[in-house]
Specification:
The chain has one domain: 3-Layer(aba) Sandwich (Rossmann fold), CATH 3.40.50. It has five helices and four strands; from the N terminus they run αβαβαβαβα. The N and C termini lie far apart (39 Å).
């Protein structure tokens, strides 16, 4: 397998954990595949639980990694807290975040709730 210099840098994270939001399709699914190929364990997050689980099974089989599937909608602040609690309970330390879920903040950036910005490390 031929890897670019960028891909080679991902191998520095082998066996570490990454969170991929929007992981069941599109860009999120593509990033999940790339990170799994580099040997990263993945926390996969998406709203569609069936596609998410299918993605997890395929990535584990293809790349011999660990996965944790969390079907949830991260627009909901309670779900954000639940995810954080699950990761803490399982002792999963995240080294890499690929935020590819199809949601965003409407309006002016200074109108975004501070809780949301703090949680994602944007302040």
């Amino acid at each position: 397998m031929n890897h670019s210099a960028h891909d080679q840098n991902l191998f520095n994270f082998k066996n570490d954990w990454a969170v991929v939001t929007g992981a069941s399709s599109g860009i999120g699914r593509a990033y999940a595949e790339r990170l799994a190929a580099a040997g990263m364990n993945l926390v996969l997050i998406a709203r569609d639980s069936a596609r998410l689980e299918k993605t997890a099974v395929q990535l584990m089989a293809r790349h011999s990694i660990k996965t944790l599937s969390l079907p949830m909608d991260l627009e909901d602040q309670n779900e954000q807290l639940r995810m954080k609690g699950i990761l803490y309970e399982k002792g999963i330390r995240i080294r890499f975040l690929c935020h590819a879920a199809g949601f965003g903040f409407g309006g002016l950036s200074w109108g975004t709730p501070r809780f949301t910005l703090d949680w994602w490390g944007c302040t």
